[in-house]
Amino acid sequence: MSKIFTDYTYEICVDSVESAINAGKGTKKRIELCSNLVIGGTTPTEALFNEVRRNSELPIHVLIRPRFGDFLYSEHEVNIIKNEVIKFRELGANGIVVGMLDKYGEVDIENMKKILAERGNMKVTFHRAFDMCKDPIKAFKEIRELGVDIVLTSGQKKTAIEGKELIKELVKISKEGKEKFEKGFPEVMMACGFKLPNEIGEMLNYTHATSFHMSAKKIIDSEMEYRNPEVNMGIEGFSEYQKLETDKKTVEMYYDFLCEFIKNVQNLKSK
């Protein structure tokens, strides 16, 4: 397998065993495992991790996020995050996905150091807390100094397409750093929001990023036949008789496009 081929990564964010199975197989794929994707994702349970591991051959990066909301964490929450990192390291996770900010919108360097001290051999992604920071270029450099492997970002916009200029700048900083120092600069992974596969190709070409992240989710209707219309047990505006699930056809469509894109890159490199 050529290095060009393995340089690309397609990460699928899942919060159930069914979604993990629907993510399928593939040399360029990886799972980000979480719970409660409908609220942006929280830390999954040990039982969910183990069941996904039994049913999927893909590498698993685990989201460590103790609650919904911002990324300013109390001392108790930092302890929870640290203990979750230790647990998933011992369970054999391939990576963790984490991020912390202080009240001024800066990277919480001291608490991140505490977490990274427990990483072992796991890869570390700084998640979209990055998109909420005040100065992204400064934050990117600080994250690099912490030894983080990947930064997940939509370029501080709602979608990666809207944030493409910042993504392009971050990729440039990363690639130039790697060329000069060979290692130590985080990979920039696009948090998508794409509607069509060709948008991925346009963004890969424009930004020169080599990885992207998406849930490829669709709404699945519940099989419940009896439904009480008088009670809502979930999020206002979202029926508890619906759930989000990764769509196998969508995953395959984007995966096939990426494979074709890589073949075209290989052909250009060989000329």
Structure characterization notes:
The strands form 2 sheets. Strands 1-2-3-4-5-6-7-8 form an 8-stranded parallel beta barrel. Strands 9-10 form a two-stranded antiparallel sheet. The protein has helices at residues 3-6, 17-22, 46-55, 75-91, 109-116, 136-146, 164-181, 197-207, 248-270, and strands spanning 9-14, 29-33, 60-63, 95-98, 123-126, 150-153, 187-191, 211-214, 217-221, 242-246. The chain is 40% helix and 17% strand. It has a single domain (3-270), classed as Alpha-Beta Barrel (TIM Barrel), CATH 3.20.20. The radius of gyration is 19 Å and the shape is globular. The two termini are 18 Å apart.
Short description:
This protein is 40% helix and 17% strand.
The amount of beta strand, in percent, is: 15-25%
Q: From the alpha carbons, calculate the radius of gyration and give it in angstroms.
A: 19 Å
Number of helices: 9
**Neighbour order of strands in the largest sheet:** 1-2-3-4-5-6-7-8
Please write the string of helix (H) and strand (E) elements: HEHEHEHEHEHEHEHEEEH
Q: Would you tell me which CATH topology applies?
A: TIM Barrel
CA-to-CA gap between the ends? 18 Å
Please name the CATH architecture.
Answer: Alpha-Beta Barrel
Structural class: alpha/beta
Number of domains: 1
| CATH homologous superfamily placement | Copper homeostasis (CutC) domain
Relative helix content: 25-40%
Query: How many beta-strand elements?
Result: 10
Q: How does the major sheet shape up?
A: 8 strands, parallel, barrel
Which class in CATH terms?
Alpha Beta
Q: What would the average pLDDT be, to the nearest integer?
A: 91
Q: Which stretches are poorly predicted, pLDDT < 50 over at least 5 residues? A: 1-5
Q: What gross morphology would you assign? A: globular
